[in-house]
Amino acid sequence: MRILIVNKFDHVTGGADTYALHLLDLLRRRGHSVRLLAGSDGTIGHKGPADYLLPIKFTRAWRGRTIGANTKAVFALGLQKYSIRRLVSEIASFSPDVIHVQNLYYQFSPHLITELRRLGAPMLQTLHDYSYACNNNYLYHHGKVCEDCRISRLATLVNRCYSESLAASTVAFVLGEWRRLTLGPYGGLDVLLSPSRFLMDKFVSFGFPKGLLEHVPPFVLTSPTDSPSRDSSDFVALFVGRLEPYKGADVAVEAAIKGGFRLRVVGGGPMLLALRDRVATVGARMVDILGPLDQERVSEEMNRASVLLVPSRWYENLPMVILEAFRQGLPVLASAIGGIPEAVSDDVGGLVPPDDPAALADLVLKFAVDRAGRARASREAVAIARTRFSPALHAERLEAIYGRLTVEGRGAR
Prior knowledge:
Mean pLDDT: 90
Oligomer: single chain
Distance between the termini: 19 Å
Low-confidence stretches: none
CATH topology of the largest domain: Rossmann fold
CATH superfamily of the largest domain: Glycogen Phosphorylase B
Helix content: 25-40%
Strand order of the largest sheet: 3-2-1-4-5-8-9
């Protein structure tokens, strides 16, 4: 089968990119002809795996800028349609049987979906956030979960919910409305795939047809050597993720300060300097704020850690970082929110209420003294990665959906 994967990046900036790149490799290893369309910021000597590159102007740099500067960026996004037409004419010779979309917005114009539609192939998208229901993508702003978009999408402006900035929220509102006017409320896709049941149910509660959504749990690459020995008496907790309020890195830091346990924090983002200042102010020598690391270094940190902390505040989908931890036999202590409880239980770690550093500290300290419990959780994590989240199972589910869509003739002109 000829499959086109579309993702805004062909390098890892988060879990969605990890999934897209691993899916590219998985499908190729199963004998499919797979090509990747991704965005390029114009970097000279681009060496990513993308077969088709679409120039992009929008990055996280537009957040918080003036409305005037962002208006120019939106105008540039509108002009992207000419590059899109040229690129899609190249893709036409590949003649994909199915087009599998990952994350698009706000780097790609809605014109991309419109033009890809002309190829006549069925199109589906794996949902990684709430962008079709919420203009800031996360149903979260100013430190709390929010579903005000149910009442009116103008809530984006009223709440200044994108990066807590009126300029950024205005851009997000304009782009969201542009997409809806161009593609309709469901993004112009034939099927929306949801990694978690929670996310699927949330979209249904926002009025999305049940028949449009399908639950397809994600996968994680595994090998016989993925699980290191965790017999060390040195207990170290680890946080890996974007340093944004909704991810809760500050919750992990406060828990470490309260509990006095060792914590290593990996990730970049707007909270990086504030977290380093907090650690320096209280003299918390047990906390190391490492900043962003490449994938190899992240894997090394997971190998050395005793437990992964995922103290999210928002309605997480089903974070890839949890599956990566399971792959390496790393137990997970996480917030009981969103789709997280679909993967994390007492068997592989434990759950605490979101935004509760004291509860997290208590659970970490209990886990720290229970070496036998950690060993059991480590073994169970590996077993879950190799069964519930195995590459083969995921590929079989996708292939069944691809096959059904092509037989039904979805996407036909």
